Amino acid sequence: MSKKRILCLFDMDGTLTKARAVIKPEFYDFLLYKVKPLSCIALVGGSDFKKIAEQMGGSDVVHKFDYVFSENGLVYFKYGKEEGRQSIQKFMGENVLQQFINYVLKYLSTITLPVKRGTFVEFRASMLNISPIGRSCSQEERDAFEKYDQEHQIRKQMIDTLRKEFPDIGLTYSIGGQISFDVFPNGWDKTYCLQYLESEGFDEVHFFGDKTAKGGNDYEIFCDKRVIGHSVKNPDDTRRQLEELF
């Protein structure tokens, strides 16, 4: 396979790293020294660039990967240089944005969970990340909430309520990770980054992600006709599938 014609595009959490964890050095070496000589490599994550840099061993990830799309591509780096930036407040307007955030906080004040911590709404350039338990919870509390949510469907019920309350403002809701869900304008899922790759001349774009079922934050890009989708279970499975591909 020619490096000029093939691109491997990776989700981060659950695909290259464990959730919110740092990539294992041996896996990073595998990507850089085994995969990159055969294919261009790109990363797309819903997190802001600071979090991507933390999990990928530093901000030089923009030089190690050919393309880095943070916040689903609303912030876009190509060969180490920032090429594009968009923001949700510019798109929605402050008035609508505040109405939505106020309702979210009001809703969260009415539900009782085993524990609640802090940072319930995290504002990112491309989206709002909403966490019923709060993003400042410990890893142990994070694991416990994930199990609780599987049983009680806290996130799903909240999304259903928000859809009914705000039917006409053009928002998509996507559950990802253990404790939160993302809210963003329609079309601002991970497929957003593909517009930057269409003119790059790749014969094949292979996407690897772990949340590829409907409702997961890799679902839309996994199903997109512009990519060949690979559903993975964890970073070890990503490596196994790459070894099979190449």
UniProtKB/TrEMBL annotation:
Active site: 11 (nucleophile), 13 (proton donor/acceptor)
Database matches in SUPFAM superfamilies: HAD-like (SSF56784)
CC cofactor: Mg(2+)
Protein localization: Cytoplasm
Keywords for this protein: Cytoplasm, Isomerase, Magnesium, Metal-binding
EC number: 5.4.2.8
Reactions the enzyme catalyzes: alpha-D-mannose 1-phosphate = D-mannose 6-phosphate
Binding-site residues for Mg(2+), renumbered to this chain: 11, 13, 210, 222, 224
Main EC class the enzyme belongs to: isomerase
Pfam family, one: PMM
Pathway note: Nucleotide-sugar biosynthesis; GDP-alpha-D-mannose biosynthesis; alpha-D-mannose 1-phosphate from D-fructose 6-phosphate: step 2/2
Binding positions (alpha-D-mannose 1-phosphate): 20, 124, 135, 142, 180, 182
GO molecular function: metal ion binding; phosphomannomutase activity
Functional note: Involved in the synthesis of the GDP-mannose and dolichol-phosphate-mannose required for a number of critical mannosyl transfer reactions.
UniProt similarity note: Belongs to the eukaryotic PMM family.
Identification of the protein by name: Phosphomannomutase
The species this protein was found in: Aromia moschata
